[in-house]
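Dear support,

I submitted the protein below through the web form. The confirmation email said the job was done, but the results page showed an empty box. After a refresh the structure appeared. I'm attaching both so you can tell me whether what I see now is the final result or a partial one.
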Amino acid sequence: MLQGVNTGLGIAVVHYRTPEVALDCLTRLARAAPNAEVVLVDTAPEPAFQQRLAEEHPRVRFLAAPNHSYSRSVNLGLAQLATPLVALMNADVLVEPNTFTDLMAVLDQHPRGAVVAPLALTPDGAPQRMGWPYQRNYRRLRSAGRAPRANGAPPTAVDVSWLAGYLQLMPRTLWERVGGYDEAFRFFNEDIDFCARVRRSGAACLLVH
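What the results page shows now:
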């Protein structure tokens, strides 16, 4: 299943008025998952950016969308993809070369399906601040990761109640079964609601580092 890092993976990137950041994001994506199908959902489209996107990332599909909500942008983007694995992410997420390899390694251990997300770090290597409830996820991850990681061993992952929606990867069948993001949530708590439905379906939400 790890070949999904390069084939069978579709990624929807949601963008709003951060052209340089978005282009950097797509450059990193091309290195981390070179054969993934990528669609960029732009909620404030500008011709100049669209032209640069076509020139610098010709394999990335462009989708203009109204700035209704993050939920709708994600749903529109993933609806463009027919891949067995799907990922959603913000355009300000800068992935590392091993990001999707690590996520896939964890997903391989959960044949019933799971949503997996990487630990988000600041430039100085500290966990991103996601509010005080998310600190519990960080404490669990630190506790689980105290033992040295052996060569070839999968990354550390912990089952958590919810995953922030900056980057989530899952089987398409799980996304469809759960029903995608609820568009009644405009710009807050859509990820919490989605993860609650994932867990009620019997699947796990896993934070990976």
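Response: this is the final, complete result; the empty box was a page-load delay. The first helix runs from residue 19 to 32.
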